[in-house]
Specification:
- The longest helix has 31 residues.
- The protein is elongated and about 110 Å long.
- It is 45% helix and 15% strand.
- Helix 5 runs antiparallel to helix 8 and helix 10 runs antiparallel to helix 13.
- The relative contact order is 0.06.
- The N terminus is likely disordered.
- By secondary structure, the protein is of the alpha+beta class.
- Strands 2-8-9-11-10-5-6-4-3 form a nine-stranded mixed sheet, sandwiched between helices. The protein has a seven-stranded mixed sheet with strand order 12-13-14-15-17-16-18. The chain has a seven-stranded mixed sheet with strand order 22-21-20-19-25-26-27, sandwiched between helices.
């Protein structure tokens, strides 16, 4: 139980409405160097029973008979008195373990004697169990050993104990360098590690206005050993950890000595393999540690303390300078502790900054080495991409090129082979992005800054010429060229930010080859962490799209996901751009690929470092910004990220985004943060329904007589709302739990019951099926259907069920992308050439491939594709963004956030406006596509018309944004009064809205409204005269 003490709240609590009120700025200063007295940070335990234990151990060793009896007393005495092993060892270990270790030490001495070289004496003692571990081994100071017991010891401690510590099961570590030598003839020292399981008290978060007391969250052994000064230091570190998302790093100068104590605090699980990587870091600067501690606390904080000293006689920078470099590079190491390019100094490794640059360049090269080339271009020009067979061939060739041309391993080999070139490429990168010297750094520049001054930078032309003349072949040149391309297209990065949780880069997308990426994105970000990588692509300055977590089933699947991640991101963003045709935001998408461990939200969204100017010296400083303009990203939920949206909005506000935190994410919880959930209000389903109802109206059909097949069951957003909004005769529903079918029509009351409960079809009451109806669950095997057919495996049956049923209309509301593709679409046409469905409204994203859609339309299926049919969700999210930008924080809390679990009248009215806008946009697009198809007498597929409509709208919007039409005040006011929902205009007023909304957003809103209303009214072939009259009417309408 924690005892709170007075102070400021450590962080924003998403569960407390009051936390949304404007927060006072924190007074976080960078105490880059503190002084402490030359006293131990921990009390040295005295084991009172040591002499008694020594006598008993001597008897045990003598009894075992391995050591000659006349030598036993001397060996035991040396072990107890001369090695300098801490009393912690003797107090914690049993006599049997100590006896075995003494015998093992004697055996090692004999082995070294036979080699006639005392330096060959290697000690390796260990004991590991579920409660901790003891390791004792020979350890030369200031060196990272690459073989023997010391080479893996710390990595094992990370992997087995520290990386998996949680408040419920945590381990603390004490490690000491022995003061004595191994024997009279061998001068080696021992390193002792003691890992013990913590006994942490339960943790209760402090009340508002109070802080955590370190004594209330500490292990009892730590409290017994830590001095008052150590407790005070750790307390301040802990408070800072609770208010930040990156590591807290402080250096303490020990009075009267050259020792420096480096203390690092961070949230448990914030990194991995960090403790062992730190040793390699300070060894690089010829420092050694006398003592090291890792402490865990029940509030989820980890604190590492290193007692560092300069290695005597080393040819290295003085510790007074190098400690600041260690401090700076520790933050990079926190992001990428397991970096294959950060090798021990003995192996010619890079400094951390250069190694981190090499790692980021390695990731970049994996995705962007041009792997298709001219041969693919020639083939692409010969083949017809509209021919499904040709398209399939091209896709296979593209995939083969990507897999075989530049592998992760071959790229890494090139980077390892040319360390000097990597160093020059790093300097080329740093000359653009290393922050300018401030007053403090002019007084004592960091070693990284000194390195940049001593390495002669080359011009881009000189560097390219150096690469060309040094490498052995074109393959190697292309890899190293990609790092130079990376340097030239990074516009800003948090690489040199003192505190960060992952590395993020804003890139200009000009390097993307047109052959692979025909539509150039507006901007792109890449985020790199130790256990994940991610991209964000947007096609316009003002753009919005979901963040998708790409999970891998196994290592092989992960390897495929790695290769295809950027292409998947690009394709998703491109599809989103088509769908966002009639809203202000262009298409965008983000993807996160974890390496089997889901990264924390804070690491995934390190991109925020590049959106908010740093203001706090030593924590978040100003970056070198080559883009030079403010940027806002609008993020939405997608696969695996729905629970990140609330956190991300609050995190943006904590970081200082007071004006746009409310609009940073959509899909926020309605009650806590005023979001507009799509499922609760059926937003996506409302646009799908407009297409379904549009078909019925145009063809004079009565819905109750129409048969329907649906994928996506009553447990999902689209599936449940499709059931609730429809009144047709549904004959089959396929969802994750199985297949429900009845040719007589499924009982609607039972379907409605499931939809309200949000449970899958496996919960359907089978007593309400007709004699020909059935329910096949995925776990069923050898099940006999009413027709006599036997289902061998329920999962296999479910996976292919969408290809077996026939009905008037098919509405996919769920399922995997490309469930219907060119290889299986023929199954939707019977032996007489008659399609299984007359009409298809594609509610689920990418359920059919483009080739499959065109194939079905050739067989007279009336089909409306996903980017037209399911855009209701993006319209709702767009208007959620608008509310966040338009309302001040106080207004937003009062009007959008629920009170006592109930929405305000404003909220309810605004939701109705959103629903009406969705229906209006969907109906307008449906009519436009239907008219154009009729005008052409069916000569052009509706799928093609939909794509052309999206492109025409996006192009017209871009032209309008670039024009001066927005500057015409009557036109602007007329359009904005219509484009902004009435509820918002009435509450805030048009003048206030035009003052508050960012000008780029206003231009996007104006242009999207004008473009969509014009094209929907006049069609894709409208004339300039039509536009003149349309624009004049819009302006005039405002004054009527």
């Amino acid at each position: 139980m924690s005892t709170p003490i007075s102070g400021n709240p450590p962080h924003l609590d998403p569960n407390i409405l009051a936390a949304l009120r404007p927060s006072s700025a924190r007074n976080l200063s960078d105490a880059s160097l503190n002084r402490v007295k030359n006293l131990p940070g921990y009390t040295t335990p005295v084991f009172k029973g040591k002499e008694e234990q020594r006598a008993l151990v001597e008897q045990d060793v003598a009894t075992k008979g391995f050591i000659p009896r006349e030598l036993v007393a001397n060996e035991v005495n040396w072990f107890y008195s001369n090695l300098g092993i801490d009393d912690t060892y003797f107090q914690n270990e049993s006599r049997a373990v100590i006896s075995d270790h003494i015998i093992a030490l004697f055996g090692a001495k004999i082995l070294a004697y036979t080699k006639h070289d005392p330096s060959k004496l290697v000690i390796d003692l260990e004991k590991v169990d579920e409660n901790g571990a003891t390791f004792i081994h020979t350890s030369p100071p200031g060196l990272t050993v690459t073989e023997g017991p010391g080479s893996t010891c710390e990595a094992r401690i990370d992997e087995q104990f520290l990386d998996h510590s949680t408040p419920e099961s945590a381990f603390r570590l004490e490690t000491f360098r022995s003061a004595g030598s191994i024997s009279a003839t061998a001068s080696q020292q021992l390193r002792c590690y003691f890992v013990t399981k913590c006994k942490l008290p339960s943790y209760t978060p402090p009340a508002n206005g109070q802080k955590t007391d370190i004594r209330a969250v500490s292990d009892a052994v730590f409290l017994e050993k830590a001095t008052q000064n150590t407790l005070e230091i750790y307390q301040k570190i802990m408070w800072n950890v609770e208010t930040r998302y990156g590591p807290v790093i402080e250096v303490y100068e020990v009075e009267g000595s050259r020792e420096r104590r480096l203390v690092i605090g961070y949230k448990m699980g914030g990194t991995s393999k960090f403790f062992s990587a730190l040793s390699n870091l300070y060894h690089f600067y010829s420092l050694y540690s006398a003592r090291k501690y890792v402490e865990q606390f029940s509030n989820g904080v980890t604190i590492i303390s290193l007692y560092l000293n300069p290695l005597p006689g080393a040819n290295a920078p003085p510790i007074e300078h190098s400690i600041f470099q260690v401090m700076k590079e520790a933050s990079l190491l926190f992001c990428l502790p397991d970096n294959p390019f950060f090798l021990p100094k003995a192996l010619g490794g890079h400094a951390v900054q250069e190694a981190t640059y090499a790692y980021c360049g390695w990731i970049f090269a994996q995705h962007f080495c041009n792997r298709l080339g001219t041969a693919y271009l020639h083939l692409k020009n010969v083949l017809n991409e509209n021919d499904p067979t040709h398209a399939e061939v091209l896709n296979d060739i593209k995939r083969r090129f990507r897999e075989e041309t530049f592998t992760r391993e071959s790229i890494a080999q090139v980077l390892h082979a040319y360390p000097d070139l990597i160093r020059l490429l790093y300097v080329n990168f740093a000359m653009s992005h290393y922050p300018g010297a401030d007053d403090a750094s002019q007084l004592m520049p960091t070693l990284s800054y000194q390195r940049l001054q001593t390495t002669q930078p080359l011009t881009d032309e000189e560097l390219y010429d150096k690469l060309r003349r040094t490498v052995h072949n074109k393959h190697e040149l292309q890899v190293l060229e990609s790092l130079l391309i990376f340097n030239k297209h990074v516009l800003k990065t948090n690489f040199y930010q003192p505190t960060k949780v992952a590395l993020s880069f804003r890139l200009a997308p000009g390097f993307l080859p047109e052959i692979e990426y025909p539509k150039k994105p507006f901007g792109m970000f890449i985020v790199i962490g130790n256990d994940f990588r991610g991209f964000h692509i947007r096609f316009r300055d003002v753009a919005r799209g979901g963040i998708r977590l790409v999970m891998s089933r196994n290592k092989e699947n992960y390897s495929i996901n790695q290769r295809m991640l950027f292409d998947e991101n690009y394709n998703l963003a491109s599809t989103q751009n088509l769908k966002n045709k009639d809203i202000p935001e262009g298409g965008a998408k983000g993807t996160i690929l974890p390496s089997f461990v889901i990264p924390t939200a804070s690491r995934s969204l390190a991109v925020i470092d590049l959106l908010i100017p740093g203001q706090t010296p030593g924590i978040k400083e100003r970056l070198v910004d080559l883009y030079g303009k403010p940027e806002i990203l609008f993020l939405g939920p997608d696969e695996g990220t729905a629970d990140m949206m609330d956190w991300a909005a609050l995190h943006a506000r904590e970081r200082g985004a007071e004006t746009w935190w409310k609009s940073f994410t959509t899909g926020k919880s309605a009650a806590k943060l005023g979001g507009i959930p799509h499922d609760t209000y059926g937003m996506t389903s409302r646009s799908i329904r407009q297409y379904v109802l549009g078909i019925y109206k145009q063809l004079g059909l009565q819905e109750k007589n129409v048969t329907k097949v649906q994928t996506g069951g009553p447990d999902g957003d689209l599936g449940s709302n499709e059931i609730l909004l429809s009144s047709d005769k549904t004959v089959a529903i396929i969802d994750g739990s199985g297949v429900l079918a009845d040719p007589a029509g499924l009982n609607r009351d039972e379907l409605v019951r499931l939809a309200h409960l949000r449970v899958p079809v496996s919960h359907f009451d089978i007593s309400k099926l007709s004699k020909d109806g059935y329910l096949v669950r995925i776990e069923d095997q050898d099940m006999k259907l009413p027709s006599g057919e036997v289902v061998i495996d329920g999962t296999d049956f479910r996976n292919g069920a969408h290809l077996r049923f026939k009905a008037d209309i098919f509405v996919p509301c769920g399922g995997r992308p490309e469930a219907v593709n060119i290889s299986n679409v023929s199954a939707l046409v019977d032996s007489e050439g008659k399609p299984h469905f007359k009409y298809i409204v594609e509610g689920a994203n990418l359920f059919l491939t483009q080739q499959a859609r065109l194939h079905l339309e050739k067989r007279k299926v009336i089909l409306f594709k996903d980017s037209s049919a399911n855009k209701g969700g993006v319209t709702s999210s767009s208007l959620e963004v608008l509310a966040g930008l338009a309302l001040s924080t106080d207004e937003y809390i009062n009007l959008m956030v629920f009170k006592d679990g109930q929405p305000s009248e404003f909220y309810k009215s605004y939701v109705r406006d959103v629903q009406d806008k969705i229906a209006e946009n969907a109906a307008a697009e449906f009519q436009c596509i239907w008219r154009e198809h009729a005008r052409l007498n069916g000569a052009k597929a509706r799928t093609t018309i939909s794509d052309e409509l999206s492109s025409t709208l996006n192009n017209l919007q871009a032209e309008l944004e670039a024009s001066d039409l927005f500057d015409d005040e009557p036109s602007k006011r007329g359009v904005m009064a219509r484009a902004i929902p009435d509820t918002l205009v009435k509450e805030i007023g048009l003048d206030a809205l035009l003052q508050r909304l960012p000008v780029p957003y206003q231009k996007a809103l104006f242009s999207s409204y004008v473009a969509s209303r014009f094209i929907y009214k006049y069609g894709v072939n409208a004339s300039s005269v039509d536009f003149f009259h349309f624009a004049r009417d819009l302006a005039g309408g405002f004054h009527q």
